[in-house]
Write a structure and sequence with these properties.
- The protein has 233 residues and is of the alpha/beta class.
- The protein has helices at 40-47, 70-76, 93-100, 107-120, 122-126, 137-150, 167-184, 195-201, 219-224, 226-231; strands at 2-11, 14-24, 29-33, 55-60, 63-64, 78-81, 155-159, 187-192, 204-209, 212-217.
- It has ten helices and ten strands.
- Strands 6-7-8-3-9-10 form a six-stranded mixed sheet, sandwiched between helices. A four-stranded antiparallel sheet has the order 2-1-4-5, covered by helices on one side.
- Strand 4 (55-60) and strand 5 form a beta hairpin.
């Protein structure tokens, strides 16, 4: 569903991503781990078109999107929930969700997507008329993911959804991501720092270190061998 090959990107003349390659298959949750400064945020910016690709290729469902602008990538099926809870704070929850569906012109389809999102996140239905800035951090994160799902993406990109959440809320968020995959069948690329929680939902794991891929494989191997996990960071 998402194919990344030999990706190189950076800022000014300094490369940050140094030839990374990985795949995300349909209905698969791929977790990307790495310490601060490993290049995870640069992956998000490059895949969404906010940071130019210097070398390499990005394909989404067979379509080459390497040089396409961000709005075309959304229309092609790549949606993102950013780390900073990117919602419209003075608008209601319902209006935020409907804005997430701006790529759709069929209002019947918009209604179907809204019903799906509210079924996945019942709390958003209860908060429908509430303005977004009054929500808690976890609720805003939920709204941000809901907005991304309103675009009906083929691949959902989640940028550190546990940031600022308590351990209990983080566990709930991971359960929500598993539910999104199970009920909606979405492919998910999850960027995370909370290793133990992220491994709970991972089908496949890639680890970045200083812009280089240092591990790719099944999560069980890392879960069962803490020594290897520690050595990657």
């Amino acid at each position: 569903m998402l194919e990344v090959r030999d990706l190189v990107a950076g800022y000014q003349s300094e490369p940050v991503l140094r030839g990374i390659s990985f795949d995300v298959h349909p209905a698969q949750i791929v977790v990307m781990l790495g310490h601060n400064g490993a290049g995870k945020s640069s992956v998000v910016k490059t895949l969404t078109g906010l940071l130019p690709t210097w070398q390499g290729r990005v394909r989404l469902d067979g379509r080459d999107i390497t040089r396409e602008p961000p709005w075309k990538r959304v229309r092609a099926g790549l949606a993102v929930s950013f780390q900073d809870n990117a919602v419209f704070p003075t608008m209601t929850v319902r209006k935020n969700l409907l804005l997430g569906a701006y790529v759709h012109t069929d209002q019947r389809r918009v209604g179907e997507l809204l019903a799906q999102v509210l079924d996945t996140f019942p709390l958003l239905g209860q908060r429908s008329g509430q303005v977004a800035w009054t929500l808690s951090g976890g609720e805003r994160r939920m709204l941000s993911i809901g907005m991304a799902l309103m675009a009906d993406p083929k691949v959902l990109l989640l940028d550190e959804p546990s940031t600022g959440l308590s351990p209990g809320r983080t566990a709930e968020m991971i359960d929500t991501i598993r539910r999104v995959r199970a009920t909606l069948g979405k492919a998910v690329l999850l960027i995370e720092q909370n290793v133990q929680q992220a491994l709970r939902c991972a089908d496949y794991v890639v680890v970045l270190k200083t812009g280089t891929l240092v591990y790719s494989g099944e999560p069980d191997r890392l879960s069962s061998d803490p020594t290897e996990l520690i050595s990657l960071f």
